[in-house]
Amino acid sequence: MTGRPHILVVGGAGYIGSHMVKDLLRAGYAVTVLDDLSRGHREMVGDAELIEGDLGNTEILRRIFRAQPVDAVMHFAAHSLVGESVEKPLAYYRNNVARTIELLDSMLTHGVTRFIFSSTAAVYGEPNSVPIDEDHPCQPTNPYGASKRAVERLLADCAPGSGLNYVSLRYFNAAGADTSGTLGERHRPETHLIPLVLQVATGQRDAIRIYGTDYPTPDGTCLRDYVHVSDLTQAHLLALESLIRGSGNAVYNLGNSKGYSVREVIEAARQVTGHDIPVIEAPRRAGDPAVLIADSSRIRRVLGWRPVYEDLSSIIGTAWLWHQREARSA
Question: Of 7, 82, 100, 198, which has the fewest beta carbons less than 10 angstroms from its beta carbon?
Fold first, then answer.
């Protein structure tokens, strides 16, 4: 490999993808972004080349792979709303599985064999035990998790005969924002707890709903493992470096291995923002496990990953910078 490695970031205008693009550029990589902008935002791509289009568009993919050598592909373009996946399973299988097949087929046709896949803890379904390691049975309980698991199976099946080298990274709860305050979480609609809580602090919402207060946890609310988006991107950089060195295929959990309850998140947000955050208690939602905490010891041991943002207040603090900026521009 000569010159700067060239990385194709599919879905690079979205939340995690845009942070990845910034960190790749900072690390000296050349970057091309492919994004249809249906859920991403053009201004978040920064100085990277942006090609507007669908990850399954074979003509666009052919042009990208023929224009210049691509050394690796990172895939952040999945649809990722659990509730929506239940309502529209075909759309999730079409985008998350069928279009990924087209992407992989085009990659391999053009001799591109390094692939980093954004997977999810949703592949595990209801956990049998916590913390959850990578050998825990995968029994997803919704089409979103099932579509991600289908791609993981596809990667494992393709690799032996095609020369494909891949890393699959199973995120737990991605959160936070770039410390510059210029990148952050902007979803329409928003479904993630931390941004919803912070939208109450900015006055964009009246209150935050707690779905279920009778779980078998210390305060009765669900426990979740929050991992900062910049720690996620650092894990991707380590995975990329490992593939460039010729390492074999791997699956890793990405989490802080600590659980915080819904009430703890709300209280931490009150402390960070200085705002009262009213709460409305509501019944449980179907399919919400009581506890989801990662065992991320494998990636720490094998790739040397060390999260920088391990406490809840620092994660929320970076998100607060972003959400104040968003509220001012609304």
Answer: 82
3-class state of residue 38 by DSSP: coil
The 10s digit of each residue's pLDDT in 172-231 is: 999 999 998 888 888 777 789 999 999 999 999 999 999 999 999 999 999 999 999 999
For residues 125 and 213, state if they share a domain.
no
Token pair of 174 as six digits:
């991605």
Catalytic residue among 144, 171, 226, 252: 144
Domain span at residue 218?
Answer: 193-224+257-329
Element (H, E) at 173: strand 173-175
**144 part of the active site:** yes
Q: Are residues 232 and 220 in the same domain?
A: no
* Contact status, residue 88 vs residue 81, Cβ threshold 8 Å: no
Q: Say which CATH number the domain at 99 has.
A: 3.40.50.720
Query: Residue 70 to residues 9, 17, 105, 158: CA-CA distances in angstroms?
Result: 10, 17, 14, 19
